[in-house]
Amino acid sequence: MRVMGVDPGLTRCGISMVESGPGRRVSALAVDVVRTPQDLELAHRLLRVSDVAEEWMDTHRPEAVAIERVFAQHNVRTAMGTAQAGGVIALAAARRGIKVAFHTPSEVKAAVTGSGTAGKAQVTAMVTRILGLQVAPKPADAADALALAICHCWRAPLLERMAEAQARADAARQRYEQRLAEQRKAVRG
């Protein structure tokens, strides 16, 4: 599976492309950080992020885009910019029919380090190790984008199986309720 990982942001937006193999093997195909100047109008900053993301999607053809979910931040302005950057990327993916998944920071940290409270240094170290990189990805936004893609590669199959099981359970419940309604109707006659 080819996954584009995105650590959204307006000043720095980490973007990566990872491909999974058998088992838990993953390899990095590309990683970069999109930077936009703070003095540029918001719409133009979002356009720059979107343009680069769309170029990556068209070039690398991911099967899924994994974006960090904005959970909570102390700075509301930063949270808004992060959410907006993630939104334009999700929209670009949706227009191309690419699946979009949002993962919380703690899910990503737990997936790559084993601890949902791991620090940035731990995440970077594990991403470097998992991908067999000679040099740690920098800045942290690049490492986080790679971590998001790795997380999705490892979690997506489980999430799909759970969704399929839920769909089967829902269908079985619906059939049961329909039979029950038919039986009640027959009794009332």
UniProtKB/TrEMBL annotation:
Enzyme Commission identifier(s): 3.1.21.10
Keywords of the record: Coiled coil, Cytoplasm, DNA damage, DNA recombination, DNA repair, DNA-binding, Endonuclease, Hydrolase, Magnesium, Metal-binding, Nuclease
Residue positions of the active site: 7, 68, 141
Residues in coiled coil: 159-186
Listed Gene3D superfamilies: Ribonuclease H-like superfamily/Ribonuclease H (3.30.420.10)
Positions annotated to bind Mg(2+) 2: 68
Record PROSITE patterns: RUVC
Domain of life according to the entry: Bacteria
InterPro entries recorded: RNaseH-like_sf (IPR012337), RNaseH_sf (IPR036397), X-over_junc_endoDNase_Mg_BS (IPR020563), X-over_junc_endoDNase_RuvC (IPR002176)
Iron recorded as keyword: no
Cofactor needs: Mg(2+)
Catalyses which reaction(s): Endonucleolytic cleavage at a junction such as a reciprocal single-stranded crossover between two homologous DNA duplexes (Holliday junction)
Pfam families the UniProt entry points to: RuvC
Residues involved in Mg(2+) 1 binding: 7, 141
Note describing how the cofactor binds: Binds 2 Mg(2+) ion per subunit.
UniProt keyword annotation of DNA-binding present: yes
Subcellular localization: Cytoplasm
Similarity section: Belongs to the RuvC family.
Protein function: The RuvA-RuvB-RuvC complex processes Holliday junction (HJ) DNA during genetic recombination and DNA repair. Endonuclease that resolves HJ intermediates. Cleaves cruciform DNA by making single-stranded nicks across the HJ at symmetrical positions within the homologous arms, yielding a 5'-phosphate and a 3'-hydroxyl group; requires a central core of homology in the junction. The consensus cleavage sequence is 5'-(A/T)TT(C/G)-3'. Cleavage occurs on the 3'-side of the TT dinucleotide at the point of strand exchange.
Subunit structure: Homodimer which binds Holliday junction (HJ) DNA. The HJ becomes 2-fold symmetrical on binding to RuvC with unstacked arms; it has a different conformation from HJ DNA in complex with RuvA. In the full resolvosome a probable DNA-RuvA(4)-RuvB(12)-RuvC(2) complex forms which resolves the HJ.
Name of the protein described by the UniProt record: Crossover junction endodeoxyribonuclease RuvC
Organism the protein comes from: Nocardia thailandica
